[in-house]
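Predict structure. Chain length: 713.
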Amino acid sequence: MPAARGGPMARFSRMGWALGWAGVVLLTQLSPAQAQEGPSAEAAASKMEQARLADTDTLLALTSEGAVLYGQDNVKLSGYQYCSQAVALAESGEFRQSVRAASKALHLANTTNDPNLRAMANRDLAIVYSYSGQLEKAEQFAREALKSEARDPKLVVGPVQKVIGDVRTRRGDYEGAILSYDEALANSSPRYAPLVQASLVNALIESGTPANTQRARELFGTLPQPKDAPLAAQLDRTRARLLLAENKPAEARDLYRALAARQVGADSGYYQLWAWDGVARSEVALGQKQAAAEAVGRALEGVDKVRAKFRSEEFKMGLFSDLQSVFERGVSIYSDAGDSARAFEVSEHSRSRALLDAVRGRAKLSEQASATVDLATLQRTLAPDERVVQFHSLPDRLMVWVVSPAGIESKTIPVKREELTELVETFRNTIVRGRRTAITNADKLGAALLGPLNLQAGQRLVIVPHGPLHYLPFQALRLNGRYVIETHPVAVAPSISIAVQLAQRTPRVNATLTAFGNPRIEDKYDLPGAESEVKQLAQYFPSNSVYMGAAATKTQFRDVAARSPLMHVAAHAEADEVDPLYSRILLANEGGKQNFLEAHEILEMPMQGTALVTLSACESGLGRIAQGDEVLGFTRSFLSAGSSSLIASLWPVSDDATAVLMSTLYGELAKGRDLQKAMQAGQLAVLKDPKMSHPFFWAPFNLIGNWRLTVGS
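Prediction complete.
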């Protein structure tokens, strides 16, 4: 049985299970007959499930982490000072650092048996997880905070109930949110109450019922006018939203236009952008499609002028704005108008903005990392046999564009985002758990997503996923009874703009390999299969540098990163859902301490000389997906730092299958085949072994970025 290599799994949003998309219902259970003859994939997957690293953000784990972090602090603060630090860090968008500060407060609360401090530390954890979009954890820590007795309940109960209301609002449970906000309002200080009221008004508006809209109007009339200009602007946005809910789109449009002309200090552009977006929504409600297109164009023109930063005032007032919704509106309006090229370019623009909003100025980004390529430039770049397949998941449908050198075709697939999320999760779970139903599901999902696109066998596919599709192994979908990888070389790109730039910059590199294998941390992290893997791969490249065990350190990685054309890392990796910039590769201890390599550190490395980074690690291709954005973490970090290609995994990988895939891949590269063809050969080599023909074994790795790369002279 193939050995298992474990790792943490990024989780999908929890959605309902009722699916209504063209009868596409994916199977999750084995029939009795299938169970009796179940593939070895299921046994291997079960073993892998048991080998996973523990969730680092449970209450127990955070308390333990807090003890370690507190012990490392040269200057020790009080528990309440750590709470203040946690709040300040959360307000500035430093979510992982905020969690770390709150965990130190939690440690001190338990050490001193201080229930008031315990309540406040859990309150602060609830707030930061809410800010970061980790709704399940936000609710968990909010309810934990309510278990401890606070000296002043209004400092805990009001904020915590508001967090629960925020979580319910973002899940679409508006009636539940209204109940939580009412509870928060009854337990809030006079200073905090207006923020709860504003959030309550927004939940009442979103619920859409006439009675709640009427209550929203009555409650809105009692809100005091904020002295703070940004909060005042946010309140007027709510006023305009209320007019739309009351079916008064002309009045809403006029108010939004007035907001578009207002100056709100240094951040005026941000509020003007949202005002134009509101004008577009109002014009849509009025049936004025051309005016709506012009308004959304004005909003999109302002996006690049707006500084990327976390705006906590929106969360405080229950707005939960996401710039990606402006791009969504643009994609939707231009698609409805039949302007496929403009819709495609707006979709592409959304991806560069998603990167900026994730980094928020906390690391240096090259101009190339956020630049976009227009459609005409892309078409001139493509070879006759290359096709770009770009997706954009909207709340009510999935848009797909197929770009060839000669033109662009647009397709609309009638699947809601929530349904798509469930379908992808179900399919992925049948693969990760080694179920035979994965093959049936691959047929159904392949026919639904790729069947309408008229793809021809032999065409090279560069797939640009969106939202939940980043978790989907497209190579494992099936068309006409065959896996996609059997008829198409496949590559993935977070943005076609960056992929095209990288492909043009590094078409061929020297055959020099630098490899890190089985970094020494502690026994439970040992990967003996990774060590064998690296030794085997080194044989294909006489010019190589190999770092094993205790030598596979972050210091060594930094030292060689700038001068390593081919870099292979066989190690554990963890995706950070709270803050993707803190996703990390677990390299060897240094000086008796853990010294992991985090994504924000990778962004700062000069890796323009690195053509390929292979992360033969656990779920290294995963990262957080917010609404409408891409997987953020290792993928964008390495590509933005200058590496032109990345190979990363979507689920915990098998040592035996990885050995076959990687040895074939590197062997083909050494022979001069391009990276996309070499990757196809590696996956097919595993697929053709009857013992490893299940997608669990051969489909976990994605090729991301420069699909044309070749090695050697």
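Summary: The chain has three domains: 58-224, 368-490, 497-711.
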